[in-house]
Amino acid sequence: MPRSKEAKAKRAKGLTELRKRKGLQAALAKHLGVSRQAISDWPAVPIDRLKDVEAFTGIPREKLRPDIFQR
Q: CA–CA separation, 19 vs 14, rounded Å?
C-alpha cells in the first residue's frame, strides 16, 4: 500500500537533523560500517538501525522517526 505524501514527509523530516550537522553523516556511516551513500539513500532511519543511530548521534528516536514514535 503506497504511503501518503504526509507520511513520507514526516519520515524524511527525521533525517533532516542528521544531514544538516556537518560531518555527522560520514561519521555515522563509518560507525555503522556502511557507505555514506547508503545513508543518503535512506528515506528514513531503518528500524533495525534506530538504536545505534540514536546512541551515536544523540538525536532522540522520536525526532529520527516521528512517524513511529509520537509524544
A: 10
- Please list, in sequence order, all residues whose beta carbon lies within 8 angstroms of the beta carbon of residue 3, skipping any fewer than 6 positions away: none
pLDDT tens readout for residues 27-38:
999 999 999 999
DSSP helix/strand/coil, 11: helix
CA distance 62 to 33: 24
User: Given CA atoms 60, 61, 62, 66 in this order, what sign does their dihedral have?
Assistant: positive
Mean pLDDT (the chain) is 85
Residue (of 62, 51, 63, 57) closest to 27 by Cα position: 57
Query: What is the rounded distance in angstroms from the CA atom of residue 37 to the CA atom of residue 10?
Result: 21
Task: Report which of residues 3 and 14 the model is more confident about.
Answer: 14
pTM value > 0.90: no
